[in-house]
Amino acid sequence: MEIKVTNENRCAEIRLIGELDHHGAKGLMAKIEREIEGLLPLQLVLDFSGVTFMDSSGIAVVLRTKQRMKELGGTVKLRKITAQPKRVFEAAGISRIVEME
Amino acid sequence: MRAENYVTLEFLSRSSNEGFARMAAAAFAAQLDPTLDELGDIKTAVSEAVTNAIVHAYPDRIGKIVMKMKILSDNVLELTIRDWGCGIENVQQARQPLFTTGGEERSGMGFTIMESFTDRLTVKSAPMKGTSVTMRKRISQRITSRR
Ligand SMILES: Nc1ncnc2c1ncn2[C@@H]1O[C@H](COP(=O)(O)OP(=O)(O)OP(=O)(O)O)[C@@H](O)[C@H]1O
Ligand SMILES: [Mg+2]
Description:
A: 101 residues, alpha/beta, Transcription Regulator spoIIAA, 5 strands, globular, B: 147 residues, alpha+beta, Heat Shock Protein 90, five-stranded antiparallel β-sheet, binds adenosine-5'-triphosphate, binds magnesium ion
């Protein structure tokens, strides 16, 4: 999976591009963690507009990202979630624990 | 129930086959004229079952996976994903939300997702013998559809 990162005033945005399954998520968490540790954002936004498919592999990535941000005193928010990933988040009850807009 | 149509696929437990398996299931299901949401649910459920076979059944080797796709009467799609891997000790426990043996990379939500995206989920497993996951989903008949 490819990511695109923008950062302004310690508010970072990571755009995820591709299929967020077990195959596609390989190496993704390491990439996200590297960005978090490098930028130390207070707020991190994960932009899902480029995610063409997501399964439970994506849930693990989101929960780990939330955990990392919490450890560093920051927050995480998901943005522009398309229909299929949204149904997965809802089935897993993630909409209740992670902010989504 | 006798199948009105079926396709059987056999493939190796390589992660690159996850995408292939769900596209194949979606292509097979297309003859039932599913909605976009139904198609997304089918792809997601297949992805969960196939990923489990790749990640859990064969943790340190490449093994065989067979996916049977069937159309039963009354617009019902039946998908069976079978492996000959390590098997599940306690199926009831494995099906609980959040239960995982997969560590940080997994969330323990796979079976929960399969359950909520299909009408019926059956899991048969024996340690050292393998696992077979069967899902049934009835595809809504749209009045405007032509078949
Ligand atoms: N085909 C299989 N072979 C062996 N064990 C399996 C198989 N499928 C599932 N399991 C066991 O059942 C557990 C629960 O599976 P489930 O798909 O619900 O969660 P997960 O795979 O651990 O996490 P997630 O699916 O959220 O990434 C797994 O952690 C694993 O121990
Ligand atoms: Mg799983």
